[in-house]
Design a protein that fits this description.
By secondary structure, the chain is α+β, with helices and mostly antiparallel strands. It folds into two domains: 6-127, no CATH class; 140-236, Orthogonal Bundle (Arc Repressor Mutant, subunit A), CATH 1.10.10. It is 44% helix and 13% strand. The chain has nine helices and seven strands. The protein has helices spanning 65-74, 90-102, 109-127, 140-151, 159-166, 170-181, 185-202, 217-228, 232-236, and strands at 6-10, 22-26, 29-33, 38-41, 47-52, 59-63, 86-87. Strand 2 and strand 3 (29-33) form a beta hairpin. It is globular, with a radius of gyration of 19 Å. It starts with 5 loop residues before the first strand and ends in an 11-residue tail after the last helix.
C-alpha cells in the first residue's frame, strides 16, 4: 500500500490476542504488530504486509500532509520525520484512542477538533525528530525512476525507459527498486493508479468516468479489491455506519 498522507495504524488491545499479530515491511525493514502498537508512516512510502500471524483488529488514521507539517512547524520542529516506525508508547496510543472515541455523530465539532489538536501535539512531541536527518541508503537512480513513475502514473511506462532514467540495467533496477520499496516498479505504478482512482471517486466522478491507467473496469476492480478488500463501487458509496466501539 502506498501511503498518501501521514498514516497511523493502531492495534487496539480489545479484539486482539496478546501475541505477535502481523508482520510488515517498510523502508526495507520488517516489523511486527502487537496489541497497543502504533505504526507511523510518511507520505509516498510503501507499506507491505508480508505475513498474518493471528487474526488482527486495527484502525487507521491518515492526516493530510500539509496539515500535519503545519502542526509540526507551529511546534517549532524543522520537519515532520518520525524517529521510529513502530511504537508502544502509552501516551501515543492513548491520544489516538481518545481521538477515535471522539469520532461519533453525537460529538461536537469542538470536541473532535480539540482531540485532533491534542493528538497531533502528542505525536509531534513524542515521535518526531528534533533536527533534520538526511535519508540515506536509497540509490539516486532508483529515486529518479520512482519520480518518473509518479509523473507518468496513468501512462504506459516501459522497463527499458525506467532503466535509462535510473542509469542501471533493467535487472539491476528491478532488484534494487524492489529491495528499496518492497514491491516491483510495475506494482508501484499500480499503487499510484489505485490512489488516482480513489481521488477521482472522491471528487465525484462516476465509476465509468474514472481514468487512471488500468486497461478496463474489471482490471481496476480486481486490483482495487486486492488492495483494500472492497470494490471501487463500494468505496464510492460507503455505508452510513458508526465507528465500532473501542474498549
Amino acid at each position: 500500500m502506498l501511503t498518501q498522507g501521514y498514516t497511523f495504524c493502531v492495534i487496539p488491545q480489545s479484539g486482539n490476542q496478546d501475541t505477535d499479530l502481523m508482520m510488515f515491511r517498510y523502508r526495507g525493514q520488517v516489523y511486527t504488530y502487537r496489541p497497543r502498537a502504533v505504526s507511523m508512516e510518511e507520505p509516498g512510502e510503501i507499506h507491505h504486509n508480508i505475513r498474518v500471524l493471528a487474526r488482527t483488529s486495527f484502525w487507521m488514521l491518515q492526516i493530510d500532509a500539509e496539515q500535519f507539517e503545519a502542526a509540526a512547524a507551529e511546534m517549532g520542529l524543522p520537519w515532520a520525520h518520525f524517529r521510529q516506525v513502530l511504537t508502544s508508547q502509552p501516551e501515543v496510543y492513548d491520544a489516538l484512542t481518545r481521538l477515535y472515541r471522539s469520532l461519533t455523530p453525537d460529538a461536537s465539532p469542538l470536541e473532535q477538533q480539540s482531540q485532533l489538536a491534542e493528538c497531533l501535539r502528542v505525536i509531534a512531541s513524542e515521535c518526531l525528530e528534533r533536527r533534520r536527518v538526511p535519508r540515506t541508503g536509497t540509490h539516486p537512480g532508483v529515486e529518479r525512476s520512482r519520480a518518473y513513475l509518479h509523473a507518468h502514473a496513468t501512462e504506459p511506462v516501459h522497463l527499458d525507459e525506467l532503466a535509462r532514467i535510473a542509469g542501471l540495467s533493467r535487472f539491476h533496477l528491478t532488484r534494487v527498486f524492489t529491495k528499496t520499496f518492497g514491491i516491483s516498479p510495475h506494482a508501484y505504478q499500480n499503487q499510484l493508479r489505485l490512489h488516482e482512482a480513489k481521488r477521482q471517486l472522491r471528487d465525484g466522478r462516476s465509476l465509468s468516468e474514472v481514468d487512471c491507467g488500468f486497461f478496463d473496469l474489471s482490471h481496476l476492480t480486481r486490483h482495487f479489491r486486492n488492495a483494500w478488500t472492497l470494490t471501487p463501487g463500494d468505496y464510492a458509496t460507503p455505508p452510513d455506519a458508526a465507528l465500532p466501539p473501542l474498549e
